[in-house]
Amino acid sequence: MTQLETAMAILMKTFDTCAAGEGKKDSLSKAEAKKMLEKELPTLLKASKNPDEVDKLLKGLDFDGDSEVEFTEYVVLVAALTCACHGRCAKK
Known about the structure:
- The protein has helices at 3-19, 30-40, 42-47, 53-61, 71-86, and strands spanning 27-29, 68-70.
- The chain has 92 residues and is mainly alpha-helical.
- The protein has one domain (3-86): Recoverin, domain 1 (Orthogonal Bundle).
- The model has no long low-confidence stretch (mean pLDDT 82).
- Residues 49-84 form the EF-hand domain.
């Protein structure tokens, strides 16, 4: 597999592993999402000066307001964070 294919496979596996912890296997509960962010993005969260950053991220992830994070919402988060880290997001 190429590096990009490997990265995509890791994104899918990470979501599936985290979503398998509670109820629905195709979405993350708030608790699963919070645990995933703390486990998988510790450096980014520690760099934040706001201790409530995880809750803000979770609230922003739930685009449809169903209190769960579906795979597409998860992918948007990862893409947005990647852009922010790479310095390519448009500044408001």
